[in-house]
Amino acid sequence: MNFNHYMLKNLKVLVFIVITNFSANAQLPPVFGNSYIGKFNQSQMVKTYLTPQKIIWMSDSTGNYIQNVQSLLKKGNGQVGVNDKNLCRLISKDEHKPSIILDYGKEINGGVKIQMGIRPDKSPLKLRLRFGESVGETMSDVGDKKNATNEHSLRDFVVEVPWLGSIEVGETGFRFLRIDVVEDGENAPIKSIDAAFVYRDIPYLGSFESNDDRLNDIWRTGAYTVHLNMQNYLWDGIKRDRLVWVGDMHPEVMTINTVFGENDVVKKSLDLARDQYPLPNWMNGISSYSMWWLLIQKSWYDYHGDLSYLKEQESYMIGLLNQLSTFINKESEETLNGNRFLDWPTSEDPIAIHAGLQALMVLTFEAGSDMMGILGHEDLQIKYYKISKKLKRHVPKGNTSKQASALMALAGLKDPKQVSSEVLLKDGVHHMSTFYGYYILQALAKAGDYEEALDVIRKYWGGMLDLGATTFWEDFDISNVPNSERIDQLPSSNKFDIHGDFGKYCYVGYRGSLCHGWASGPTPWLTHYVLGIQVSDGGNTIKIAPHLGDLKWVKGTFPTKYGILKVYHEKGLAGEVKTTIEAPEGLNILK
Questions:
Q1: Residue 78 three-state SS
Q2: DSSP state at residue 483
Q3: N or C of the chain: less Cβ packing under 10 Å?
Q4: Alpha-L-rhamnosidase six-hairpin glycosidase domain: which residues (predicted)?
C-alpha cells in the first residue's frame, strides 16, 4: 500500500515542497498526480500543502460578514495576484467579528499557510488561529475548564497576514483549524488557508487486508499514527509529547518493523536516549523505560539482523543489565528505584506496578541473555539467563490489572489461559489502556484466544474510529463512549465532549493527544498473529503461522531484509487454511 492510499485519500494537494536533500528523481504518490519533484536520501522529510475538505462551522450565515467561503475548498495555484477574483471575504464590524472552522480531513503534523489578496487598506490583517485535534478543541481557550493548553506546541495564537502576500505559521498536530478576525473594520480578501503538512516520505511496504473492513481500517490507522510521529526523531505525539519516550517507542518500533521496515529514525532515537541518560540514570527517569530500551534492541536485531549496530550498544547494554541485576533481593523480587511506572492507569496501583516490573525484569534478562549470545559473550549469556530464572521464582500476588497480568503471562510467571479468562477478558474491553493494549493482545494470543483478541481490537480500537478518529489516541476509556459526540462534530449541550470532558493524569481534557504512537499495537499484532508472519534469526527466517479466527481470508505484505514477502490465506469450507506465499530470494520460510 502506498503512503497516500490511506493517509491522503480524497485530500486536495496544492503544492509539494522539498525540505531537504532535493534531487530530481522521486515520484509523488498517486494521489498527487503523475508529476514528480524530489527524492530524499537521509531525512526523508517533505512538506505538502493541503486544501481544506469542508467548512465545519462559521459564525455568520447571512453573507454580511463571511462571503464566498466555499472558495477556500478549491485547490489554488499557491500564488497571490493583483487580479485574483471571487476570493473569500472576512468582514468585521463592531457587532460581529467573523470566524470559521475548517476540516482538513485527517490528522496531520505541521501548520498553516494563509494568503491574502489585494485591498485598499495595506495594513496586516490580525487573525487568531486555534488548531485542534477535535472540533471542540478549536472552540476552546487556553486555560479553560477543559484544559486547553499551548504546551509542547503552540495551537492558539494571533498572527498578522500581510497585504497581497502570505504567512506560514504553526508546528503542531491537528485536523481542524478555527480562524477569527481580531479587529473590527476589516474587509479582507482571503485566497487560501492551506495546511502545511510535514511528514516523512517513505513507502508503506507492509500491508494487511481481510474480509473485515473494520480490521483493515484499524491496521491502517495504527500505521498512519506512527508514520506521523516519525519526524526528526520518533515522537510519541505530534501535538503533545513531541519527545522521545523510550517505553512508548516499543509498540511504535514494532509497527515500523511491520509497515516501513528498517528506518534510521529508530536507531537515531534509541541512541539519543542512550546518550541523554548515561548510566546509572534510568531513561526518561523511569526504570521500566530502560528495560524497554533493551527489549527494543532485541526486537530490532530480530527483524533486521544489524549486528554492527548491536555491537555499538554492547558496553551500555552490559552496564545496564548489570545495574538492573543489583535491584533483586534475596526473595527474587525486583526492588527497582526511580519512577516506578508501567502506564498511567496503573500508576496509583503499587501491586500492579510490582507485578509488571517483575515480569519486565524477566523479559529483559531473557532478551539480554539472547543478545549476549549473538555478541559472542557466552559467560554473560549464561549469567543473564540464570538471573531470569531466579526472577521467575517470585510470582507477585494480588494483581488484578490487565496490563500487569498481560506482562506476567508473556514472561511465563502465570498461565496465559488462566490470565486470559480470569483477567484479560473480564469486563470486555473495559479497563484497557491504549499503550498496554498491545501486550494484552499478545497475551491473548499466547493463550490461544485469537478470535477473542480480534473482538477486542474491533471494539476498543474500533471504538475510536466510531468517534471520528483518523489516528489512535493517547487514552481511551470505553465507558466514556455512551452519549459522547464525535470529534469531527461541534460539541452539543446534551452530549459529552469525548475529547474535552474526560481524561486523567497528564491527558486531562484537550491536553490529551489524539495521535499517540503507543496506541498502534493492533497493526503489528494483526500482521504477526493473523497474517502469521513470525520473524527470527536476525530477519533471515520467517515462520508462517496464521490464525484467522472468524475471518474468511487475509492477505498482506511484509518488508524483509531480502525484499517484500507476500502472503495470502483463505479458509476452506471445513475450516482448513490454504496458504499462498511469494517470498524474495534468500529468505528462509518455515510453515
A1: coil
A2: T
A3: C
A4: 205-487
Q: Which residues contact 426 (CB under 8 A, 6 or more apart)?
A: none
The dihedrals phi and psi of 119, each to the nearest 5 degrees, come to -155, 160
Q: Please, what sign has the CA dihedral across residues 54, 58, 62, 65?
A: negative
Whether the pLDDT of residue 232 is over 80: the answer is yes
CB-based contacts of 261: which residues, under 8 Å, 6+ apart? 205, 206, 304, 559, 560
Helix (H, G, I), strand (E, B) or coil at 190: strand
pTM for this entry: 0.93
- Residue 591 binned pLDDT confidence (cut-offs 50, 70, 90): confident
Question: 547 — phi, psi (to 5°)?
Answer: -135, 95
At 475, list the grid cell: 487514552
Each residue of 175-202: pLDDT tens digit? 999 999 999 999 999 999 999 999 999 9
Q: At what angle do helices 437-446 and 450-466 cross, to 10 degrees?
A: 160
User: What is the C-alpha to C-alpha distance for residues 398 and 530, in angstroms, rounded to an integer?
Assistant: 33
Contact criterion met (CB below 8 Å) for 92 and 65: yes
**In CATH terms, is domain 237-468 a member of 3.40.50.300?**
no
Closest of 570, 567, 580 to residue 532, by C-alpha:
567
Segments of 481-526 assigned E as strands: 484-485, 496-497
Does residue 24 register a pLDDT over 80? no
Task: Give the integer Cα–Cα distance in Å for 323 and 280.
Answer: 7
* 499 grid coordinates: 475529547
Which spans in 260-349 are helix H?
A: 264-276, 287-304, 307-312, 314-325
**Cβ–Cβ < 8 Å for 444, 450:** yes
* φ, ψ (nearest 5 deg) of residue 522: -60, -25
**Secondary structure (3-state) at 397:** coil
Where along the chain do its domains lie? 3-200, 237-468
Longest Cα–Cα distance in the chain? 82
CA dihedral 157, 231, 245, 500 (to 10 degrees): 40
The reply to whether domains 3-200 and 237-468 share a CATH topology is no
In whole angstroms, give the CA distance from residue 182 to residue 389.
Answer: 66
